[in-house]
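2.7 Reproducibility. Because tokenized structures are sensitive to small changes in the input, we list the exact sequence used for ABC transporter substrate-binding protein, including any N-terminal residues retained from the expression construct. No trimming or masking was applied before prediction.
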Amino acid sequence: MQRTKLSFTVLAAIVALGTILSGCGNQEAGKPTASSSPQSEGNKFANKMKISMFNQGTFNAAAPIPPRDEDIQRQMLEKAMNIDLDMMIPQAGQATTKLNTLIAGGDIPDLIFLKSRSDLAQYYDQGVLADLTPYLDQFPELQKRFGKDSWEAMSYQGKTIGVPGYDNVNGISRSYFIRNDWLKKLNMKVPTTPDELFEVMKAFTEKDPDGNGKNDTYGFIGGMNKEGNLQTYGFDSLMWMFGVNPPSAIEVKDNKPVFLFIDPKMKEALAYINKMMAAKVVDPDWVTMNTPDLLDQKLFKGKVGFMIRDARRLEPDYQQKMKEIGGEVPEWIVIPPMKGPYGDQIVERKSFQGNSWAISKKADKDKIIRILSMLEYLFTDKEAYPNFAYGIKGIHWDIVDGKVKNKTSELSKEMKEKYLWVDHYRMPRRGDDAEYFSFQNPKTAEAFTNNQQYVGLTLPGNLLTADPSDTLAADRTRFINESLVKFMTGKDPLTNWDNFLKTLDTKFEMQKYKDTATKQFKEAGLIK
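Resulting structure tokens (single pass, no recycling of outputs):
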């Protein structure tokens, strides 16, 4: 994507405390005032424009849209951009049907939030969406707001057909939890490598770290979902120590695709996990761990010393559950991921930018410019940011000791329910903004912040779209997952690795899958 030096300054909304909203007691809500920015002085948006927005990107589809005179965020957008904003919020599960009905009737919304790249490509192919390529160089701040991989996800057939919708949240759900009290009791240090981690897990299993004289503790527990997929349940994090992961983890190196689930390093990762299984450091209940709630129960009971869980388990509500279920609040700490033999130190890969903002092809040049200006303002204006990310000033946030303080967690249930509609505007919140999440335990915020440096880049394999002619796709994926589990557990010895690869080629047409991936990577410009 080319970038020019042309600047496009967006309006800054000046928010002041205004009229007390009904039911707020002594709370005051911020009211936007008229802007005196250079843009308005130059009559950049002299003509008022009506813009319709199909917002399925809301964080709470059930919340009703408030009247305009109570909708602070809507007023800010309308004043900053000189627009009349008509926002539609489709109910959960009804968005696709509603949007298709609007399209079929010729009433295409000007601005559309889409949840998947496949939807973005599909609607573009149908002639519903505009090509934004000719306009984006006028919005350098908007381009800088999102990373290269996010913008690559907006590219299709050599054109940019969308703007990233909102940041996905990374660096919290796959945190490395370890019992620091057990480490202290066994006089061991925080592990930093796979080998050190194995020794710690072995000690947690064999040396009675809880001191009850029983052989009832384990070094690790993971799981897999009900479809037999190992991703997100812990074992995949162990594989990342070796720089590999199950389907569909595909990298591009040296101008060719690298399928990490059949890479030679995957064999090493499986050997490591098999070593754990053989040493019995893995809680045997792992085969039944097919939901996050079941893994949480293991965390609460306190009989496992190392797990991959969400850092928010350090929050007070979860700490209380630990006390209720396990009888104590263990000294769980979040540590950096292990540094593997090839230098990989990954807590997780950055989530793929599937969601997007798209603009109707029926919109003329002026409307496209106005909408992109609104998105640039929404996502990049520093003064406006807390008003959208956190909510209403004086209610959801305020300035405390010269800094923005998110007060949402301090609100009563009634106040939270009264202002549920602010969730319609939270999309600009940054995925690494600890203040947005309003963590109650400082250790949660610390873990979240520290983990950010170990979030790897998004894998290009996420850009691939399904080949309709690949009738073996589902069977191939199932075979790969089942084979990995067999190698992990020793049901199939790793001496059969080459047979596994051969079966993929002969029975599941792996070469066809490779050819499809190569073709799509070439179309995306990732392979020359």
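DSSP finds 20 helices and 18 strands in the chain.
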